[in-house]
Amino acid sequence: MTSDPGKAVAVAVVACPFCSTLNRVKLDRLAGLPKCAECQKPLLLDRPVHATDEYLSKMINGTTVPVLVDFYADWCGPCKMMAPLLDELAHERAGELLVVKVNSDQNPVSPQGFGVRGIPTLIVLKDGQEVARQVGYAPKAALITLLEQAR
Length: 151
Known about the structure:
By secondary structure, the chain is an alpha/beta fold. Helix content is 25%, strand content 25%. The mean pLDDT is 93.
């Protein structure tokens, strides 16, 4: 992403995986390996980041790029099949997409708030609003098509 004085810098709000502090990360600085403001450990946004019921809304509403939220469970076979695809998407689209994973067993409030009835459920949000949804396993091409709805 290039710096354009007339264009707002894309940001993502993410919780540190080590200390849970919410951080505002300028996405044009990902190559500089951003660090948590509290514990100084790295914030790696080229992979899915985890969210809890406590932080999901703040992460979605504070992020200026599209957000792909994966509601999953560790015991779910289709969820395990989706994981490497989401890893690829997060890596390939770092700086232009935030991939967030929410463990539905550990965080039951968020899935309920989004009307999730089956897992995996993938929800694409833009400017805090849902623009697309996929329930169940989907190949990577279908995920890319889903993401195009956030343009």
